[in-house]
From TrEMBL:
<comment type="similarity">
    <text>Belongs to the ATP-dependent AMP-binding enzyme family.</text>
</comment>
<dbReference type="InterPro" id="IPR025110">
    <property type="entry name" value="AMP-bd_C"/>
</dbReference>
<protein>
    <submittedName>
        <fullName>Propionyl-CoA synthetase</fullName>
    </submittedName>
</protein>
<feature type="compositionally biased region" description="Low complexity">
    <location>
        <begin position="1"/>
        <end position="17"/>
    </location>
</feature>
<dbReference type="GO" id="GO:0050218">
    <property type="term" value="F:propionate-CoA ligase activity"/>
</dbReference>
<dbReference type="Pfam" id="PF13193">
    <property type="entry name" value="AMP-binding_C"/>
</dbReference>
<dbReference type="InterPro" id="IPR020845">
    <property type="entry name" value="AMP-binding_CS"/>
</dbReference>
<feature type="region of interest" description="Disordered">
    <location>
        <begin position="1"/>
        <end position="23"/>
    </location>
</feature>
<dbReference type="InterPro" id="IPR000873">
    <property type="entry name" value="AMP-dep_synth/lig_dom"/>
</dbReference>
<dbReference type="InterPro" id="IPR042099">
    <property type="entry name" value="ANL_N_sf"/>
</dbReference>
<feature type="domain" description="AMP-dependent synthetase/ligase">
    <location>
        <begin position="90"/>
        <end position="475"/>
    </location>
</feature>
<dbReference type="InterPro" id="IPR032387">
    <property type="entry name" value="ACAS_N"/>
</dbReference>
<dbReference type="Pfam" id="PF00501">
    <property type="entry name" value="AMP-binding"/>
</dbReference>
<dbReference type="InterPro" id="IPR045851">
    <property type="entry name" value="AMP-bd_C_sf"/>
</dbReference>
<feature type="domain" description="Acetyl-coenzyme A synthetase N-terminal">
    <location>
        <begin position="29"/>
        <end position="83"/>
    </location>
</feature>
<feature type="domain" description="AMP-binding enzyme C-terminal">
    <location>
        <begin position="542"/>
        <end position="620"/>
    </location>
</feature>
<dbReference type="Pfam" id="PF16177">
    <property type="entry name" value="ACAS_N"/>
</dbReference>
Length: 656
């Protein structure tokens, strides 16, 4: 069925006491949504005025064929100008752009817009001195420090395409991305800090360069306190390692280079169903327009407001809402190095909100569940004044109603679940707080964003018309501005992965339903992708790693329910004849293998040895049945089961 925002609008108005009335501007969500769908050309061309163009586009969209479109053709702009120069020119140079708060080192630092512009322009100059030109790729492998923002915006300043890799990935995952993106430059640090351990990046980078760094000419290294390692340690390396501070000091500030609207702003890799991650390509113009609009119309954030996205720059949430969105809007963004719990306690989030006057906070449900486990009565909240907080936005995984109620009742501000993906770069569905806060429905991500035409399709691609009936969630083409334009280096992969299943639609890979009021419920993935602590992982790539072990004959990985992380990956293996092992030793070896090949982010800790994997007679592993058994759900054993004993063995070891 089609999501019907008209019915959502007919619902009684929600609690809007936290939404300043001038922001409502008499707009109703349903009117705005209808306008965006009926006349996207006019809607988005008008919205394009929110950004500063060197050449203004005269039309919003150009569709070349079913799988190709360009937003704002003919338009030229520079994103770093929109994030920095225009605010400085407007007299806001002294306003804080970035607040850095590291719970790991105790460091607290602010950069004004003028200071950030200066650093970005200089580092852009350093990149240019290293031979980086518009269109060249730069891989950024950095922890949560202000340099991550500087590096990303420096790329934008000279039209380079960045690809940020999350610090929790191992050398081989970094290498896969280096091979695919073929960067000229890697930007990194001596390392990151995790509770109880330091993560030295330079040995990881050196190994990744060996495995996949053929294109790399220069590595910039910023030194971190507490983590050993510097560019000087690699003075004899065949690739040039340069100290960031020296390079930035020596460089002339680079002028911004305007690029075409469709010029790729960045590539961000995400897990697909195979072991090979997909490089999602974001354009420049559509991205800048959509994110600028989203700050006020979705998040209710304007210039001067303090905004905090407690994610990581390595994820899409970090790209859009630690870096680009808040700076495009002229707001203050917080970059926080720490965890919601244990650094030092479950009051960490509330401390930051009080200390900086945070107006809206964005994090993942898993972080809220972690706080809840440590501090179910929210006693830490009583130590802080969080009255500045107007909304808590959650995304990245399903927000279970229980967690929703706990947070909504305890924190005394609206908790807003919203749904999006690396591919979309900004939300698909949300309670549009910046337009009109609709009455929330726990378990629902509310209504489609303006620009999004969402359908529920059955397996044959037909519209599911009954409210409440689950199906494949799909979006009509063309996708709104800022959503992906393609997959890096592989035109066919974009079509095959997203457009082939339902011609004329983008298949989100999620299933769900729309209720009688037009509210969307996202229930889970339809593919082999799992979601661990808001991080997307491919079970296929985990299985590939497990079978690298010389004792393992076959492997299946499923995502089972986890009280904190939403899901956790559990492995099931069979052993080769003559390779019997102590299960505990084997488990440790397999866990180490996953850490080595994928990284600690997989949080892989559980493996079961089976005599046989449950399969159909045609050899298909019954992953869904395995998951259902482990999750204690009802399950159906297909008549085509190869050996029912395999199911009995699973039932015997499943948690009760
Ligand atoms: N660099 C290196 N290692 C990292 C890392 C990084 N940037 N981020 C996480 N890791 C490591 C952790 O140290 C941990 O290692 P360990 O197995 O040695 O303990 C492992 O990866 C798993 O990390 P994580 O999933 O973060 O689990 P956790 O138990 O340390 O913390 C939460 C649990 C809920 C507190 C944490 O997952 C969290 O804050 N999640 C928020 C999720 C988020 O921001 N998602 C983005 C989408 S909005
Ligand atoms: P990622 O690309 O890593 O951000 O993961 C995107 C996937 O996370 C989506 O396809 C969904 O499966 C899931 N997801 C994200 N946000 C939500 C949400 N609010 N509710 C349910 N699932 C979500």
């Amino acid at each position: 069925m089609t999501a019907t925002p008209e019915s959502a609008a007919a619902a009684p108005p929600g609690s809007t006491e936290n939404v300043p009335t001038d922001r409502l501007r008499n707009d109703r969500y349903a009117d705005v949504w209808r306008r965006s769908i009926e006349d996207p050309e006019a809607f988005w061309l008008e919205t394009a005025d929110l950004v500063e163009w060197t050449t203004k586009p005269t039309s919003a969209i150009e569709i070349t064929d079913g799988s190709h479109w360009r937003w704002f053709p003919g338009g030229e702009l520079n994103t770093s100008v929109n994030c920095l120069d225009r605010h400085v020119r407007a007299g806001r140079g002294d306003a804080p752009a970035v607040i850095y708060d590291s719970a790991m080192t105790g460091t607290k630092k602010q950069l004004t817009y003028a200071e950030l512009l200066d650093r970005v322009a200089r580092f852009a100059g350093a990149l240019r001195d290293a031979g980086v030109e518009a269109g060249d790729r730069v891989v950024i492998y950095l922890p949560m420090i202000p340099e991550a923002i500087v590096a990303m915006l420096a790329c934008a300043r000279i039209g380079a395409i960045h690809s940020v890799v999350f610090g929790g990935f191992a050398a081989s995952e970094l290498a896969v991305r280096l091979r695919d993106a073929t960067p000229k430059v890697v930007v990194t640090a001596s390392g990151g800090l995790e509770p109880g351990r330091t993560v030295e990046y330079l040995p990881i980078v050196a190994r990744a360069l060996e495995l996949g760094g053929a294109s790399v000419e220069t590595v910039f290294v910023t030194n971190r306190p507490l983590v050993p390692g510097s560019a000087a340690d690699y003075a004899d390396h065949e690739i040039r390692f340069i100290d960031w501070t020296d390079a930035e000091a020596a460089a002339e500030p680079a002028d911004p280079m305007p690029v075409a609207s469709e010029h790729p702003a960045y590539i961000l890799y995400t897990s697909g169903t195979t072991g090979n991650p997909k490089g999602i390509v974001r354009d420049t113009g559509g991205h800048a327009v959509a994110l600028t609009r989203s700050m006020s119309k979705i998040y209710g954030i304007e210039a001067g407001d303090v905004w905090w996205s407690a994610s990581d720059v390595g994820w899409v949430v970090g790209h859009s809402y630690i870096v680009y969105g808040p700076l495009l809007a002229g707001a203050t963004t917080i970059i926080y190095e720490g965890k919601p719990v244990g650094t030092p306690d479950a009051g960490a989030f509330w401390r930051i909100v009080e200390e900086y006057g945070v107006k809206a906070l964005f994090t993942a449900p898993t972080a809220v569940r972690a706080v809840r486990r440590e501090d179910p009565a929210l006693t830490h909240l009583g130590r802080y004044d969080i009255s500045s907080l107007e909304a808590l936005f959650l995304a990245g995984e399903r927000l279970d109603p229980e967690t929703y109620h706990w947070a909504n009742d305890g924190i005394h501000c609206p908790v807003i679940d919203h749904w999006w993906q690396t591919e979309t770069g900004w939300p698909i569905c949300v309670n549009p707080r910046g337009i009109e806060l609709l009455p929330a429905k726990p378990g629902s991500t509310s209504v489609p964003c303006p620009g999004v035409d969402l359908r529920v399709l059955d397996a044959s691609g037909a519209d599911v018309t009954d409210p409440g009936t689950e199906g494949n969630l799909a979006l009509t083409l063309p996708l709104p501005p800022g959503y992906l334009l393609g997959v890096w280096g592989d035109e066919s992969r974009f079509r095959d992965a997203y457009l082939k299943a339902f011609p004329g639609y983008y298949a989100t890979g999620d299933s769900g339903y729309v209720d009688e009021d037009g509210f969307v419920f996202v229930m889970g993935r339809t593919d082999d992708v799992i979601n661990v602590a808001g991080h997307r992982l491919s079970t296929g790539s985990l299985e590939e790693v497990l079978t690298l072990h010389d004792a393992v004959a076959e492997a299946a990985v499923v995502g089972v329910a986890d009280a904190i992380k939403g899901q956790r990956a559990v492995g099931f293996v069979t052993l080769k004849h003559g390779h019997e092992r102590d299960p505990a030793v084997l488990r440790d070896e397999l866990v180490a293998l996953v850490r080595e090949h994928i990284g600690p982010v997989a949080a892989f800790r559980e493996v079961h040895v089976l005599a046989k994997l449950p399969k159909t007679r045609s050899g298909k592993v019954l992953r869904k049945t395995i998951r259902q058994i482990f999750d204690g759900e009802d399950y159906l054993v297909p008549a085509t089961i190869e050996d029912p004993a395999a199911i009995h063995a699973l039932v015997a070891i499943a948690p009760r």
